[in-house]
Amino acid sequence: MFNMTSKRSDVEKRHIKGIRKRQFRDWSVFTAYLLPSAAGVALFFILPLIMLAYSSTMRSTTSDVFVGLDNYTRVLENKAFLLAAKNTLLFSAMAVPLSVLLALLLALMLNTKLPGRSWFRSVLLNPMMVPVASVVLIWQVFFSFNGSLNSFLGGFGVDKIDWMKSDWSRLVILLLFIWKTLGYNMVLFLSALNNVPAELIDSAKMDGAGSVRRFFSVSTVYILPTVFFVGIMSLVNSFKIFREVYLLTGSYPVDALYLLQHFMNNAFQNLDYQKLSSAAIIMFIAMVIIVGILFLVESRLDSEVEE
Predict the structure, then answer these.
(1) 52: buried, middle or exposed (CB in 10 Å: 19+, 13-18, 0-12)?
(2) 142 has which bridge partners?
């Protein structure tokens, strides 16, 4: 009896030892695959962020005097920064909901048996393949003082408008943003809608649910993660609209188009690295908070749906 118990114990020990070896081997393989990416992220993202945070607490690039939050106070009291922050948040608040809503509506329309929907999809995806310089050229042809739009409106007796220096400038950039992002967001929503189980849609039809009720009761549950993903991507892209605005208007546009990237770009050109570093860290913190709130809302909605 003692020998049988001893043998069983030895077998169990060898079994446990084999499991641990496999776990260590799997962990080693996982680490080997992950290490290059982790090293790249640490080298090109985390390390520069730490250096940026350190630089923002120094008096200057040539002085190691620690000034704490003085640079942040200076930035937060700067009128140009406050104007840039207000314009950036206002643009994102307009652009992100419109981009998500219009893309979802187009996806719902193209998910039906609409004639010519393949051609329509191709047309909406074309802006994704157009370089930024070409996009800017198109907008200059349409919205410059002697552009096509003013020539068209002049036929109706409307005076010429310098669109990029008027109150309409923010709307012009908003149209540019939506035109660029609409196709990509639409494709994401189409993919999400195609993943909705057909049997659930058919069951809802048999129960007498209309198309609107089917969408909010069935489809919304499955496309909700895509809605948040598209929203976050649109938010990030709205902060990157600086490229187009800069190429259209230069470093100092009208007040309505003066964005955070303008402020940081001008600080870089003026070699004011402490102001640049502080503004970049503030922008980073704001983005983390906004995205964190979106993820928190998504998790709570997912938990409510599961219940």
Answers:
(1) middle
(2) none
Tokens of 171: 């709307």
pTM greater than 0.85: no
Judge contact between 65 and 59, C-beta under 8 A. Answer: yes
Residue 111: Cβ within 10 Å count: 16
Residue 195 dihedral angles phi and psi, to the nearest 5°:
-90, 0
**Beta pairing class for 63-66 and 58-60:** antiparallel
In sequence order, what are the residues at sequence separation of 6 or more whose Cβ sits closer than 8 angstroms to the Cβ of residue 49? Answer: 284
How far lies 75's CA from each of 81, 88, 281, 293, 302, in Å?
A: 7, 16, 11, 25, 39
Instruction: Give pLDDT tens digits for 64-75.
Output: 788 888 888 888
DSSP 195-216: TS-HHHHHHHHHTT--HHHHII
SS3 69: coil
DSSP 168: T
Tell me the per-residue pLDDT of 199-217, one tens digit each, with 9 for 90 and over: 777 777 776 777 777 777 7
